[in-house]
Amino acid sequence: MTATAAKKVLVVDDDPDAQIFISNLLTAHGFDPILAATRAEGLRKTIDEKPVLILIDMMMRREEGIQMYLDLKRDERLRHVPVIMLATIERRLFLKWRKIHSPDLTGLASDAYLEKPIEAEELIRLAKKLSRVPAMDPAR
């Protein structure tokens, strides 16, 4: 990857409207979004595309978002990739769930959580922070 290449961000969401919104937002801020609509597709693209960040809709059907998060964080090859979980439930409920269902993952500090509806500025701030992309010059 060259120094000017856009950083790949995997967006795993089964809602096409959410995919379009997030994809356009990421593209406008210099990222290269990769889209997946299922857990299996997301895991395959994580391995094949090597994104610097993954956004997962926690509320996908059949708990695929939750399961993908657990798959990523329990796989030594993939657990280093930061994840932003997106959901309509409060952050504290997600953290409580994670503590109960996967206490081995509670110490992973590189993950973030955003409640829907997503605040565009907050998503970009977190994406830049977690992917280590320098913030844009505010004068631009």
Write structural notes for this entry.
The protein has 140 residues and is of the alpha/beta class. The protein has a single domain (9-116), classed as Rossmann fold, CATH 3.40.50.2300. It has 5 helices and 5 strands, in the order βαβαβαβαβα. The chain has helices spanning 16-28, 39-49, 64-74, 91-101, 120-131; strands at 7-12, 31-36, 53-57, 83-87, 112-115. Strands 2-1-3-4-5 form a 5-stranded parallel sheet, sandwiched between helices. Helix 4 (91-101) links the parallel strand 4 and strand 5 (112-115). Helix 2 packs parallel to helix 3 (64-74). The longest helix has 13 residues, at 16-28. The radius of gyration is 14 Å and the shape is globular. The model is unreliable at 133-140 (pLDDT under 50).
Key descriptive features of the protein:
single chain; 140 residues; alpha/beta; Rossmann fold; 5 helices; 5 strands
